[in-house]
Amino acid sequence: MTITTPSAPVVVSEADLFLPAADADPLQTILENANHAWAHYTPPLLVAVYTVESGIARNAVFQVPIVPSADGLTYRFEHHALTGTGSGNLGVTVEEYDSGWNSIHTTTTITAAASSWVEYRHTATISATSTKLRITYSRAASDPYTPHSVTVYPEPGAASTGTQSSGFEAFDGGLLSATGAPITTEHVNRPVKNMHALMRDRRQCVAAFVQEDASTPGNVLHDVGNASHASAADVRVLYGRAVATLPWQAKTELSVYCIATHDHTSASDVVRFGQADGAEVTFDADGTVETAALTVQCDRPGAIDAGAELVLQGSIPAASKTTYIHAVVAYWRPGD
Amino acid sequence: MRKPPHSSNWPSAAPTLIATPTAPARVEFLAAADNYVMSGLGCYAQPALMFDGTSSGLSLRRVALIVPPYSERMRAWVTRGGGVVNALSPMGQNDTTISAESSGSGSLPVAAAEVVTTPAGISGSSAYLGTAAPWASVITRTGDEDDASPSATKDRLLEMAGALTPTVELVEIGAAQGFGLSVVRQSQDLETL
């Protein structure tokens, strides 16, 4: 009995589908292709290009809402940074938050030559109940550096036995490879159920704007309302504008998450995220993770490059006050 | 007989599952299951990345992006912004540049001629979106010329590996304040990948 997880899907030709309807293959290939999906269907949990001051010599801390897999998967992290002078090592610490902060990866030994791009890749397991990631960058000897981006995507390895929390249940090849093994309706249904479970479980990051975190709000590169970016109360200031691609969609729903803070006693609805010329959702700046559902009507509906122009705006509730937008992330999953 | 990739929306509900234990062995059941799995494998959104690529020291940004299976060509949506100046003597801005390794190898920079260069589409002093006053912003889409071996940098399609599995593409973006990719051409015969 063996669970096979192909490194690439095996393409079943249309001709192969016709004759052997009662044979083990191509059904076994289709089942193993669903096993392949477990390991290699890797929509990013997070892609963020940091909006951050360049050439900093202090720690940079980013706090980002996430919606991880229910299966408690291992994820691949890819960090990029640009160093300034000096040769001090870079450090990266990644923490997840469920009932409290837990470190899931830390290092202070990333070699970092002067004035060079540094790519640091690692894996870490994110528990199903996590709601936030906190990523801290540092550089030894107070040498300057600029954190640029992080990309996080599933890398769970081979499918394992048993039913996962997502509903995925790996196919065991022994069930079909034995001589004279029966083909049951369960065999035919299994790849469909498994693919459906994965597609609905692994949410895809479709928008991100990330600045330094709430512990030191003044570290954000762009706030709303300070002297250099002055605005009157309730005037919308554009903080992000970009196009997300949602292939084949016409109308779909995104889940939007936000962390923002302020220096005012009340700051309701000071962060707005929405579609240009479309619906929008608003968030308070209270330091907690806030969430809202956003329905988007895609441009180029039904096309492979269907998508939506998304817009992030901030405002202040009163003159001489400040709003700090730390992270806004939107997620999508096929079928929503 | 070639086998093209799935070219319509991944269904939100699975095909009708077989409910009876005595269902006949029908090719439609196999075809539906195969189609469902293969179409799901290629279903990837592309994120709208919002960032400051204008302020001091931030004019060149690097990020790893996931390129879906079967992808051969992509185009990018680029956001630019700036402070509005006297229209009679507008201040020019540098073009946006995009360096993509196109192979999933993880290595940059690419050859100079392979850098995709997109006109700025806006004039005025460069400033991050709404942080200047008055300000303006524009989104442009990179060019649709298909030239996989350019002799000089130009505005053209981004060529991708076109594999059966997703690739991680290292991308370097110059002079932009927002970025998003979209697949515009897939391999039309999965059996040759």
What's a quick, concise take on this entry?
The complex is a heterodimer of chains A (336) and B (193). Chain A is mainly β and 336 residues long.
In words, what does this structure look like?
The complex is a heterodimer of chains A (336) and B (193). Chain A is mainly beta and 336 residues long. Helix content of chain A is 10%, strand content 38%. Chain A has 3 helices and 16 strands. In chain A, the strands form 4 sheets. Chain A has a 4-stranded antiparallel sheet with strand order 1-8-3-6, with no helix packed on it. Chain A has a 4-stranded antiparallel sheet with strand order 2-7-4-5, with no helix packed on it. A 4-stranded antiparallel sheet of chain A has the order 9-16-11-14, with no helix packed on it. Chain A is globular and about 80 Å long. With 193 residues, chain B is mainly β. Chain B has 2 domains: 1-43, no CATH class; 49-192. Chain B has 1 helix and 9 strands. In chain B, strands 1, 3, 6, 7 and 9 form a 5-stranded antiparallel sheet that branches. A 4-stranded antiparallel sheet of chain B has the order 2-8-4-5, with no helix packed on it. Chain B is elongated. The two termini of chain B are 14 Å apart. The mean pLDDT of chain B is 83. The chains are: A mainly beta (336), B mainly beta (193). The interface between A and B is large, with 95 and 85 residues. Strand 9 of chain A pairs parallel with strand 1 (48-50) of chain B.
- Assign an overall shape of chain B: elongated
Query: Which two chains touch over the largest interface?
Result: A-B, 95 and 85 residues
Sheet with most strands: strand arrangement of chain A: 1-8-3-6
Summed up, the domain count of chain B is 2
Number of helices of chain B: 1
Q: Give a count of the beta strands of chain B, DSSP E runs of length 2 or more.
A: 9
